[in-house]
C-alpha cells in the first residue's frame, strides 16, 4: 500500500549526521561502526532506498535549525542568520537529490497528482516526493525570508520546536505567541502555507486556534491520554484539530508511545513497544473523531533516534508496510486503512492546493 510519511528530517541526517541517504540502511550503519557522537549511530532506520522498498513515495521533509539566545541551554545557532544558512544548506542537499532523480519536490496540486500517478505505475526507481516544511521558525530572519522560502518551495511550517522560540514557544516552553508570532501567523495565512501545530506549547496552541484561520495539520504528535507529556495532544486539543479539519501524524519515537519509557534506560523490546502501540494512538484519535479521517503517519524515524528508540518491529522504515495488516486485524476496513496510510494527508493537500 502507498504510504505518506508526514514527518522526516532527511536533510538534517545528510548534513549533520553525515549520512548519504542514497545508500542502503545497512551500508549507512556499517559506515558508523565505532562512532558515538550521536545516540543513534549504527542504528538508523531511514534511507531513500528503504523508503522506496516500503512504498513510501511521498513525505513531508524538513528544514530545521534552531537559534538559541544566550539564556537558552538547548543546542542551537548563535544567530538567526546562521540558522537560516543552515536551512539553506539543507535545501541545497534536497536539490541535489532532485538532480540525481532520487527525490522530487511537490509544491502544487498538479505536481501532487502527477506524482501519485507515477507511483501507481511500475517503474524501477521512482523519485521520493517531498513537501518542504520548516520545523521551528527561528531561522526566518524577517518576513521577507519567509517569502523567499515560499519561492524555494516551502509549503508547511511549524512556528516552534523545543523550548523558547523567536515566534512561539515549543515543547517544554512557557509563555504565549507575542507580537512576532502573530505577525508570522498572518504571513503564513497570506502565503497559504500549511501551519504545523506539532511542538506548540498549550498556550500557543490555543492562542493560535483563536488567531489563525488557514489550513493546519500536526505532522508528528501522539495522544497525551496514553502518554502524559506536554509534547502530546490532550483530547480537547485533538477534538479542536478535528473541528478544524486537520490530520494528525503518528510519531514513532518510543518515549511518545509508551508511558513508562525512561530515557537512556528503557528499550523497545523490554517495554513491548511495537507498531501495535502506535495503533493504540491511531485508534484513540479515530474513537475521538468517530471516523478514520483525521489520523495519518508522521514517523520522525530519523529525528535523532534509531532502533534503540522506535517500535521493536521496525528495523527500517520499510517495515511501515506491516501496519495495514495489523489495522485489519484490529477491525479496520480497507477504506479506513487507506485513509490512515496516505489518503487523509493526500486529500488534505489536494483540498488546500486546489
Ligand atoms: Zn523533526
Q: Enumerate the distinct ligands.
A: zinc ion
What Rg, in angstroms, do the CA atoms define?
19 Å
Counting DSSP H or I runs of 4 or more residues, the number of helices is 13
Query: Helicity, in percent?
Result: 25-40%
Q: Please give the number of β-strands.
A: 9
Uncertain ranges: none
Judged by helices, strands and strand pairing, the structural class is alpha/beta
* Percent in strands: 5-15%
Gross morphology: globular
**Alpha-carbon distance between the termini?**
25 Å
* Biggest sheet character: 7 strands, parallel
Overall pLDDT, averaged? 97
Helix and strand sequence: EHHHEHEHEHEHEHEHEHHEHH
Please describe what this structure looks like.
With 354 residues, the chain is of the alpha/beta class. Helices cover 39% and strands 11% of the residues. The protein contains 13 helices and 9 strands. Strands 1, 2, 3, 4, 5, 6 and 7 form a 7-stranded parallel beta sheet that branches. A two-stranded parallel sheet has the order 8-9. Zinc ion binds next to loops. Zinc ion (ZN) binds at residues 7, 9, 62, 64, 135, 300, 303.
SSE layout and pairings?
Blueprint: E1 4-8, H1 10-15, H2 25-30, H3 48-53, E2 58-63, H4 80-99, E3 103-105, H5 109-119, E4 128-135, H6 143-151, E5 154-158, H7 178-191, E6 194-196, H8 202-211, E7 216-217, H9 235-243, E8 248-250, H10 268-271, H11 275-289, E9 295-297, H12 323-329, H13 334-353
Parallel strand pairs: 1-2, 2-4, 3-4, 4-5, 5-6, 6-7, 8-9
Main attributes of the structure:
single chain, 354 residues, alpha/beta, 7-stranded parallel sheet, two-stranded parallel sheet, 13 helices, 39% helix, binds zinc ion
Amino acid at each position: 500500500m502507498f504510504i505518506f510519511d508526514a514527518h522526516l528530517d532527511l536533510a538534517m541526517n545528510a548534513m549533520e549526521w553525515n549520512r548519504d541517504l542514497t545508500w542502503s540502511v545497512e551500508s549507512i550503519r556499517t559506515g558508523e561502526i565505532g562512532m558515538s557522537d550521536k545516540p543513534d549511530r549504527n542504528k538508523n532506520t531511514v534511507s531513500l532506498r528503504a523508503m522506496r522498498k516500503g512504498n513510501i513515495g511521498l513525505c513531508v521533509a524538513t528544514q530545521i535549525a534552531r537559534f538559541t539566545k544566550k539564556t537558552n541551554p538547548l543546542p542551537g545557532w548563535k544567530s538567526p542568520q546562521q540558522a537560516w544558512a543552515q536551512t539553506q544548506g539543507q535545501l541545497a542537499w534536497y536539490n541535489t537529490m532532485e538532480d540525481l532523480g532520487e527525490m522530487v519536490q511537490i509544491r502544487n496540486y498538479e505536481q501532487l497528482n502527477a506524482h501519485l500517478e507515477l507511483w501507481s505505475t511500475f517503474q524501477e526507481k521512482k523519485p521520493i516526493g517531498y513537501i518542504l516544511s520548516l520545523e521551528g521558525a527561528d531561522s526566518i530572519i524577517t518576513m521577507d525570508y519567509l517569502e523567499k522560502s515560499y519561492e524555494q518551495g516551502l509549503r508547511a511550517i511549524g512556528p516552534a520546536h523545543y523550548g523558547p522560540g523567536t515566534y512561539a514557544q515549543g515543547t517544554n516552553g512557557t509563555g504565549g505567541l507575542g507580537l512576532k508570532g502573530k505577525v508570522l501567523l498572518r504571513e503564513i495565512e497570506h502565503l497559504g502555507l500549511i501551519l504545523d501545530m506539532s511542538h506548540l506549547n498549550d498556550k500557543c496552541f490555543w492562542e493560535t486556534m483563536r488567531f489563525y484561520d488557514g489550513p493546519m495539520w500536526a505532522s508528528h504528535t501522539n495522544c497525551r491520554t496514553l502518554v502524559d507529556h506536554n509534547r502530546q495532544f490532550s483530547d480537547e486539543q485533538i477534538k479542536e484539530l478535528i473541528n478544524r479539519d486537520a490530520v494528525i501524524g503518528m510519531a514513532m519515537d518510543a518515549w511518545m508511545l509508551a508511558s513508562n519509557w525512561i530515557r537512556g534506560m528503557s528499550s523497545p523490546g523490554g517495554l513491548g513497544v511495537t507498531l501495535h502501540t502506535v495503533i493504540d494512538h491511531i485508534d484513540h484519535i479515530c474513537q475521538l473523531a468517530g471516523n478514520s479521517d483525521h489520523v495519518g503517519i508522521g514517523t520522525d524515524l530519523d529525528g535523532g533516534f534509531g532502533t534503540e528508540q522506535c517500535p521493536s518491529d521496525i528495523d527500517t522504515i520499510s517495515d511501515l508496510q506491516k501496519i495495514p495488516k495489523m489495522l485489519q486485524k484490529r477491525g479496520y476496513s480497507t477504506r479506513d486503512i487507506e485513509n490512515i496510510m496516505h489518503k487523509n494527508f493526500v486529500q488534505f493537500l489536494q483540498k488546500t492546493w486546489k
